[in-house]
């Protein structure tokens, strides 16, 4: 008795049950003498309207300072965590990190498993991978040096500067697809629509590729190829002028 009890709920669950879980947490398990906070992992809705509905629903049970939205677990991967170190603490790479030396950048996420009943059909590969995981990595890769390593300063460089400098995507620069079943040796892999949780006539993409451009002084004219289908970044540097080899 008398001890401060803080409670943190991490919602790595399907979005359609976010509000039910938050309601139960608020009514049954909230801390009376400490703080209660909720972390909501992506996808946070499937469009602007559903995202707004979720926000309003959460605020029925929680105050704004209790809600941490749109947490992307991809940012905790070792590759992503080391990207800032590679960029801004490396005298070898930082001077080369621009359109003057880089021909193109490829951000590739290729998973070796299927939908496997995970409720994937409501969102598809673009909402599930590209508009969060890969876009976060692209922004970290291409942003300018932040004022500090504080979260707010990094966010300003990523969102305010990089994402707002991105050119709208043309449909002719996008390819989507859906995986089919196949056999490899003695093992058979089902197609996407063979999954019991997926409608037989589903057109939800499980593969997508898109070319993006950032219209600023550093990256003007450099194509960023985003492929989703863990993450890999490939940088193709230009040839050295007058290369003897």
TrEMBL record:
<dbReference type="InterPro" id="IPR001282">
    <property type="entry name" value="G6P_DH"/>
</dbReference>
<dbReference type="InterPro" id="IPR022674">
    <property type="entry name" value="G6P_DH_NAD-bd"/>
</dbReference>
<keyword id="KW-0521">NADP</keyword>
<protein>
    <submittedName>
        <fullName>Glucose-6-phosphate 1-dehydrogenase</fullName>
    </submittedName>
</protein>
<keyword id="KW-0313">Glucose metabolism</keyword>
<feature type="domain" description="Glucose-6-phosphate dehydrogenase NAD-binding">
    <location>
        <begin position="4"/>
        <end position="82"/>
    </location>
</feature>
<dbReference type="Pfam" id="PF00479">
    <property type="entry name" value="G6PD_N"/>
</dbReference>
<keyword id="KW-0119">Carbohydrate metabolism</keyword>
<dbReference type="GO" id="GO:0050661">
    <property type="term" value="F:NADP binding"/>
</dbReference>
<comment type="similarity">
    <text>Belongs to the glucose-6-phosphate dehydrogenase family.</text>
</comment>
<dbReference type="GO" id="GO:0009570">
    <property type="term" value="C:chloroplast stroma"/>
</dbReference>
<feature type="domain" description="Glucose-6-phosphate dehydrogenase C-terminal">
    <location>
        <begin position="84"/>
        <end position="245"/>
    </location>
</feature>
<dbReference type="Pfam" id="PF02781">
    <property type="entry name" value="G6PD_C"/>
</dbReference>
<dbReference type="GO" id="GO:0004345">
    <property type="term" value="F:glucose-6-phosphate dehydrogenase activity"/>
</dbReference>
<dbReference type="GO" id="GO:0009051">
    <property type="term" value="P:pentose-phosphate shunt, oxidative branch"/>
</dbReference>
<dbReference type="InterPro" id="IPR036291">
    <property type="entry name" value="NAD(P)-bd_dom_sf"/>
</dbReference>
<dbReference type="InterPro" id="IPR022675">
    <property type="entry name" value="G6P_DH_C"/>
</dbReference>
<dbReference type="GO" id="GO:0006006">
    <property type="term" value="P:glucose metabolic process"/>
</dbReference>
């Amino acid at each position: 008795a008398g001890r401060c009890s803080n409670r943190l709920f991490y919602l790595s669950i399907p979005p359609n049950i976010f509000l039910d879980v938050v309601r139960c947490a608020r009514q049954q398990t909230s801390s009376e003498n400490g703080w209660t906070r909720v972390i909501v992992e992506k996808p946070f809705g499937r469009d602007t309207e559903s995202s707004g509905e979720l926000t309003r629903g959460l605020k029925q049970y929680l105050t704004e300072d209790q809600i941490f939205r749109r947490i992307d677990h991809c940012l905790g991967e070792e590759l992503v965590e080391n990207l800032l170190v590679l960029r801004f603490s490396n005298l070898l790479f930082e001077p080369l990190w621009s359109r003057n030396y880089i021909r193109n950048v490829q951000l590739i996420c290729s998973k070796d498993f299927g939908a496997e009943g995970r409720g994937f059909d409501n969102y598809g590969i673009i909402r599930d991978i590209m508009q969060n995981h890969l876009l976060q990595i692209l922004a970290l890769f291409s942003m300018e040096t932040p004022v500090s390593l504080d979260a707010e300063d990094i966010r300003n460089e990523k969102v305010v500067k990089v994402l707002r400098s991105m050119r709208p995507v043309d449909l002719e620069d996008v390819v989507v697809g859906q995986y089919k079943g196949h056999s490899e040796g003695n093992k058979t892999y089902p197609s996407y629509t063979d999954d019991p949780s997926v409608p037989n006539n589903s057109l939800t993409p499980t593969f997508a590729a898109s070319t993006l451009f950032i219209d600023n002084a550093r990256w003007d004219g450099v194509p960023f190829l985003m492929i989703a289908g863990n993450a890999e970044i490939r940088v193709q540097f230009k040839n050295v002028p007058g290369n003897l080899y």
